[in-house]
UniProtKB/TrEMBL annotation:
DUF4283 domain boundaries: 13-92
UniProt lineage: Eukaryota, Viridiplantae, Streptophyta, Embryophyta, Tracheophyta
Source species of the chain: Cephalotus follicularis (Albany pitcher plant)
UniProt xrefs under InterPro entries: At4g02000-like, DUF4283
Protein name (Swiss-Prot/TrEMBL): DUF4283 domain-containing protein
A Pfam family that the UniProt record links to this protein: DUF4283
PANTHER family according to UniProt: DUF4283 DOMAIN-CONTAINING PROTEIN, GLYCINE-RICH CELL WALL STRUCTURAL PROTEIN 1.8-LIKE
Amino acid sequence: MAELPEKVLEEGAKKCEHALVGFFVGKKILFWSLHSALNKKWSDAGKFSIHTAKNGIFVFKCESIEVRNWILDNGPWDVWGVHLALRLWERDLPPISSGFSKITVWVKLMNIPMEYWKTKGLIHLASILGTPLYMDLATEAKQMISFSRICVEVNADRLFPDVIKSKRRSGDMEVKVEYS
């Protein structure tokens, strides 16, 4: 079996180190539509290129970690109303094998009891849905307490509940959930 020298692999990995892998949830988007839409949305972040893989999977090579992080931090993204699921590129894994068993989504939690309006309380609520990653600025600052927005990594093959129910001393609690 032939083996590529590690130096060649390192050089190739260097070109992809700030890449993202993505696909559209539920619908396919044509390359040129995607290219046009994302150039408008992401151009302020810096340079990136889009590459098609197989089965609707795209690789987004970003010129720097700052560009990649800007894309991740300012999502979720959609093109023509279709959600773009993104994940970090992983070395030694072909894009087609970059399973999307987990995706990141922004969730909007509403009807939150006041005693949950602290970081630990909001993270606890979001953790019922998946792994909380970060909150939007308004939620972090607790400026507007009619709802919170939290980015959560969820299992793609599970149901997305509309409510989080919990029993409390004062009775049942229902926090409403909306997904971006």
